[in-house]
Amino acid sequence: MTGRTPRACVDYYLGENLSQIPGNASIPEYALQVLERLQNAYCLVRDDISARAEYSADWYNRKVRLVSYSLGDKVRIFNPVTKCGWLPKWSRFYRDVATIVKRVNDATYLVVASTWQKPRVFHVDKLRQVNYDSADDSNKC
After folding, report:
1. What does the alpha-carbon distance between residue 51 and residue 109 come to, in Å, rounded to a whole number?
2. Total-model pTM
3. In 3D, which of 125, 104, 101 has the Cα closest to residue 114?
């Protein structure tokens, strides 16, 4: 297109003479060797990633507790919104109280609150059971 021979990336690495190819192999043989090494490296990396994923899953599953709610349970909803200028330690993240309406699956629930217009679906990690202690009974209203 421009009137000269196009140069590929391999041309810049190899230069004008082909003496830089190890073992005096031809360019196609060298390309096959590089592909084989890349495939071996890819397999090693995938094996390492899967082993680390299993290790992380084991550690995560040690701390996980199975939580289930029944219909009609009162729960608090996690809402990480903070007001501008307020420190997070002064914020109440479990502010809204809602009622379980439906269990969608093992990890999600449909809940409804009096301040919402529509029911919403939440993951079980975002829900906390409302426990009314004797001190809370006086402040329920």
Report:
1. 33
2. 0.52
3. 101
